[in-house]
Every structure is written in structure tokens, then in C-alpha cells.
Amino acid sequence: MFSLQRSAVLSALASYATLTHAATQQTCPTTDVCFAVGVPQQSASSGSGNIYFQIQGPTTYSWIALATGTRMADSNMFVMYQDGNGNVTISPRAGTNHQMPVLDTSSTAAKLTLLAGSGVVDGGKTMRANVACSNCNSWSGGGSMQLSSTSSPWIAAWKAGDSLATTDKDASISRHDDVGSWSYDLTKATIASDANPFVDAGGRSSSGPNGGGASGGGNGGGPDSTGPGVIPSSGAGGFQSAREEITRLQRAHGIIMALVFVVFYPVGSIVMPLLGKWMVHAAFQFFNFVLMWVGFGLGYVLSQKTFMNVASIQGFRETHTLFGAVIVCLMILQPIGGSLHHMYYVKHQRRGIVSHVHIWYGRILMLLGVINGGLGIELVRNGGGGGTGLIVAYSVIAGVIGLLYIAVKGFSSFRKRRGGDARGPGAVADRPARKEMSNAS
Ligand code: HEM
Ligand SMILES: *[C@@H]1O[C@H](CO)[C@@H](O)[C@H](O)[C@H]1NC(C)=O
Q: Is the pLDDT of residue 319 over 90?
């Protein structure tokens, strides 16, 4: 028992020693697709110059791509596929949002050079690109990367399928099966000389997750092959389950928010003139308010996982996430306004300005919430997460409830006006609860 523990500690120390010696940083966001990066000392200190990276995976993939950035849009992409002659093509592309990136032909395009050790290896089973990039510190679309950053964001994508077998750098590729994102501590990826770190002096592959050696590479995948400083977004190896988790979060967030904004809030508002019980209104809307925050929490976690709300200035790059956060925050005033209205009403037996504010503020926020739900569905739809059917169904339901809402409000204010005329002011005193309700809701 004791010796077992000690050997575990020793082997942990040994692997730590190997990793701290590591010249390159590497990660395998899925078991068989691996990437590595090395930054020459000189480039790190001057902030520009060559960096080296490696892309490797089985030839059962049609293409494998690595990119700098946090998401497709505005990233600097390097797409690798077989060239049909036993080697690989490496294609620099400028990331656009959720569409096929095309070859970057601008003057700021990444200058990539394929190096020794690249090619289709392992008897045709593996393809590998060892690449030098001379200008990857900044790129088309205004992106840039600090070569000495301790958390430099990288993304990747891969697609299983037939070999593209082309040297055309602008070949069409189809959408990825899966994607990954992580950050590298580039200060741990420093290499002494400005030379291909993925081969040894004799030109033999010296690194790479399947090559073992210099970078302390593991066994081609799994959590162990990611060194310190490599933070796979979802834990390497667990990528598939991370995707499933995102889908679950999307469903939970979407369903809760749609129920709250499209159904519950309007119903909570409609039932008032119908039931005339302010307590029911207040309790139900407060329940919805809490549920809305649960939905917001799920959305927040989701945005962290999908990089739609990465920390710092890049946060809230999607209208939906920004707009949603603003709406739920503005909603905080609604229970307060409701209480103020109620107190005012109890005292004066009529609506005050605060009542109108409560009513219209609530209506506007409900409407904005419904619209923002549509934007959210669009986001998922961009991601191929749902058909047009979803947005149609959502719009129809929202429309029907909207009409119902207007009809009930119109009817109750009509009834109230008529009732007021018929019964005179005394009627109000008879039924204060009902009067208040039709005002409050
Ligand atoms: C035909 C080419 C491509 C199409 C049509 C496409 C489309 C999409 C779509 C619809 C999404 C959102 C939903 C999802 O996760 O599936 C997405 C996300 C993503 N794609 Fe692509 N993509 C392409 C190529 C690439 C390439 C070459 C990379 C290279 C790294 C890449 C990296 C990513 C990443 C990291 C995400 C998640 C972050 C984000 O939403 O931007 N994609 N892509
Ligand atoms: C692939 O091309 C690179 C760059 O020209 C070269 O160094 C490498 O040896 C080639 N690989 C094979 C397997 O021919």
C-alpha cells in the first residue's frame, strides 16, 4: 500500500520533470487528433517571428484544422488535408462566422511552411503537418496573439471522411464533426533555437503525441497527454461528453426561458384581471422571476462552454447573451415596482404613475425577452442544433399568446370601463381586489 503510493508519487514527479523539460506544448482534444506548439525564445522575447506547430491525426479524417482565436469568427486557421501524393496540404484560412473558411489570399495571410517530418506516415495510417509560421502574431481580421502569453487561446476542428487528395490550398471542406478549444501557456512552449522542434537532428520525428520523446508526449490522447498550462476546454478525452453537456444545457436553458417569457410571465399577467387575486399574481410572477434566474444561470454556464461569453472584453460577443443579461437584470425592478404599486393602491384605491410604470415596464421586458428567445434559437440554428421548425413553432406560440394577451387585456379594460359607468364609483369600493387586479396586471 505504502510503496504503491510512493511509486505513484515518484512517477508523478518523473512525468512532471519530463513535462517541465518539454520544449513544446501539446494537447489532444479528442483521442486521436493532436496538436503541438513551440515558440522560439527569440520570437517570444521580440514578440514576432517564427512559431512552430504540429497537426496530427489518422488518415480516416478528411481534414484537421488548428487555429488561433477563441472561435471561428476572426480566427487564424490552418487546415491540413492529404495532398494525394503521400504528403499533406496546409492551407491558411481566415475564419468567418460558422461558414466554410476560404483560403486567405490577403497580404496578412499566415505565411506557412511545411517542414520535415510532415506527410502520411505509419504505413498510411497517420497524417502529420509540421509547420513554421513566420507571421502568426497577428492576422487578417485584426486578430493578434502575444507570443509570450500565458493563456493564448486556440481552437481546432476535424472531420472524418475520405481523403481530399489535393494540393489545392483552397479546396472545399465540409463542416466539422467536432471542435475543441483550449489555451496554451506559451511561456512553457519556448524552444531554444529557431528550428523545427518536431524532428531531431537526423530529421526523425522527435515529438508528437505518438512519437514520444522531447515533449514528453503521451500515448496519443487522454488527459495525460496534456501538459501543465494546457487547459482543454472540457478535459481532453471527455470531449464527446462535453458536446452532450452543451446540448443538454442548451435544451434546459431554452425550455426554461421560453416557458418563462413566452408562457408564464404573460399568463401570470393575464390571470390577474380574470381571477382578481393580487397574491396569486405576485406569487406566480415571483416564482417565474426565480425560474428566470435559474435559466440565466444555465445560460451563463453555457456561454462559458461555447465561448460566447469568454471573460474580458471578448465577452458578450453575441447579441443574445448581452441582451439576455440586460433583460434579466432590468427585471429586478419589476417585483419592486409591483410592491410599490400595491402599496400605492392600498393607500389611494387607484392607480398611480408607479402602476403604469409597473405595467408597461413589464410588458416591454416580456416582449424583449420573447424576441431575445428568437435570437437564441437562431444561435443554436447557426450551430445546426435545430431546424427552421423550431423558430416557426416558437414564433407561432409567442404570437398566439401575444394575441390572447391583447384580447384579454382589451376585454377586461372594456368591461372595467363599462362596469365603472354602470355601477358608479361605489362599485369600486365593493370590489377593491378585482379593481386593483385589473390595474396591476
Ligand atoms: C466548411 C467549414 C465549416 C463550417 C460549415 C463550420 C460551421 C460551424 C458551425 C455551424 C458552428 C457552430 C456549431 C457547432 O459547434 O457545430 C461552428 C463552430 C465552430 N467551428 Fe466551424 N465550421 C467550419 C470549419 C471550421 C474550421 C476549419 C475550424 C478550425 C478550427 C472551425 C472551428 C470551429 C469552432 C472552434 C467552433 C466552436 C466555436 C464557434 O462557435 O465559433 N470550424 N462551425
Ligand atoms: C512533405 O513535404 C515537406 C515539405 O516539402 C517535406 O519536408 C517532407 O519530407 C515531405 N514528406 C514526405 C513524406 O514526403
A: no
